[in-house]
Amino acid sequence: MKDPIVEEVRKAREDHAKESRHDMGAICKDLKRIERECGHELVSLSPGLLTRASSRLRSSAA
Questions:
Q1: Beta carbons within 8 Å of 6's beta carbon, 6+ residues apart
Q2: How far apart are CA 60 and CA 27, in angstroms?
Q3: C-alpha–C-alpha distance, residues 44 and 14, integer Å
Q4: pLDDT tens digit string along 2-61?
Q5: How many helices (H) and strands (E) does the chain have?
């Protein structure tokens, strides 16, 4: 069963990514702009280095 709220969030995320040509830097920059304008924190985590565990998870998902 598909959750309509999850589907709506996924569509919004994909639409935003398309507008930014799937450029993660541009996406984050735009989210920070929106954050400044609305006064709510949207991007709270700084980028981190990949760890062995996350690398294994990504390769097992492929």
A1: none
A2: 26
A3: 20
A4: 899 999 999 999 999 999 999 999 998 998 898 899 988 776 767 677 676 655 555 555
A5: 3, 0
Task: Extract the tokens encoding 21.
Answer: 């040509």
Q: pTM value?
A: 0.56
Provide the residue type at 29 as one letter: K
Place of tokens 């702009």: 33
Q: Report the candidate in 32, 57, 30 with the shortest Cα–Cα distance to residue 43.
A: 32
* Boundaries of every domain in the chain: 4-61
| Cα–Cα distance, 36 to 34 (Å, whole number) | 5
Q: Which two tokens stand for residue 49?
A: 């280095």
